[in-house]
Amino acid sequence: MHRKKHLILALFAFALANAGICFAQEETADQEESQAQQPVYSAEPAPQTQNIQYIVMPPERKQPEAAAAPVQQENPLPPPRESKFSLLFGADLSFYLTSQSYDEDSDYDLNTSRDDVVASQDYSGKGFAFGFSLGTLIKDFIGIRGFLNVGLQSGKGSYENKEIPCDSCSDLSTDLTDVRFGVEGTLFPFNGSRSAMYNSYLDLMLGAAFHSRDDEAARYFDRDETNSLFAKIEAGKLFPISTSWNVGFGIAYSLDLQFQYTVSDLEQIDYCDIGHSLWVGARFVYKKNKN
Q: Could you give the C-alpha distances from 17 to 13, 25, 31, in angstroms and in order?
């Protein structure tokens, strides 16, 4: 009987011990699970904040506008300076007509009992001339150039001289060579690029001319080589074919003149060599045109 009591008590105590161990294990598991679910915190310095305080402005004061941020711009390069001077080059081919006359009078003293001596020479012809010029153009308005011109003509020449008789010295076939050089000024009065008269020009040439005649009597009468001063005026128009090249035409008149007057006790000599020419031809000009 006592053994059964002790056995029951032992079993009861063992059951209690097992129950306590299970309860302890469940509580430990619950604590570990709750700790696993809680977040972990670390200490970090909080950022400093500035509190903005708003105040009421007086009515006479205005709230300043926010200054616009300056826009930084790169310093642009200055535009290139346009030169007032530019190249002016011209080449021309002309057809021209010439009428030339030479007269010489020599009046002697009557005490010498000698007659007056009169010499004359006439020429008329036609031919072609080629020339070129080079210089500078100022503000697309006025040009200054040097020029050289060579012309070839064929025509008729007549000679007369009281001291040198010649029965067959009229209407001789004569070849004439002209060489001219000097200074040329060109004016472009209509300077507006949109004007219909743009590139119209007036031209003045001043220089010297050398004339060489080839016929049967020229050398005999000492008229094979002569020289004179000349002036030539021309009007025309150029048409641009590119930014710099132009083609056009012109009409001109030239005057060749040589004059001398000499007086002494015994004689008075004067002679005048004058020539008139009409020119028409094509012009090729290099000049800077306006856009």
A: 6, 12, 21
Cβ atoms of residues 24 and 32 within 8 Å:
no
According to DSSP, the residues that pair with 236 across neighbouring strands are 201, 250
Measured distance CA(188)–CA(244) in Å, rounded: 15
Q: Tell me the two tokens of residue 51.
A: 């509190």
DSSP secondary structure letter of residue 5: H
Residue with tokens 């005057």: 255
- The residue count of the chain comes to 291
d(CA 82, CA 288): 12
For 271, the enclosing helix (H) or strand (E) is strand 267-286
**Model confidence over 47-99: pLDDT tens digits?**
555 555 555 555 555 555 555 566 666 666 766 666 788 999 999 999 999 99
In terms of phi and psi (left: phi > 0; alpha: psi -120 to 50; beta: otherwise), the region of 188 is beta
pLDDT one-digit tens code per residue, 178-224: 999 999 999 999 877 788 899 999 999 999 999 999 998 998 888 99
Structure tokens belonging to residue 240: 């641009």
Which distant-in-sequence residues (6+ apart) come within 8 Å of 106 by Cβ?
116, 117, 118, 267, 268, 269
CB 212 within 8 A of CB 228: no
Residue that has been written with the tokens 């007269």 in this structure: 103
Closest CA to 89 of 169, 147, 49: 147
Segment 188-197, tens digit of pLDDT:
998 777 888 9
